[in-house]
Amino acid sequence: MAEEKTAELKRLFAYEHKAARLELFIRIVYSLAVLLVLCVYGFIAEICMLIQWFVILILGRRSEGLSNFIKGYMEYLVHVISYVCWMTDERPGIMPKPVEIYEKKK
Hints:
This protein has a domain at 34-84. 57% of the residues lie in helices and 0% in strands. The chain has helices spanning 21-59, 64-84.
């Protein structure tokens, strides 16, 4: 019988009452590093979006590689935004790691 991997879901923008004062000062330096990576990643993603536009215009379809790169940027952005906006004390990794984002339909 094949073993199934169970994914642990974590709500990214949940309210956290407790906040560490020391983390508030660490966050300033750490956020700069994260935002620098985010800016470089975003710049490259913008170039990929421009190339994707031409691919769609000329071929009438999307490039999977370009789409995956752009999706990775969007997932990294959503993954780090709760830390940068003081919603959590849990530090995200500076370098992007694979995450998946789902939309809950009501």
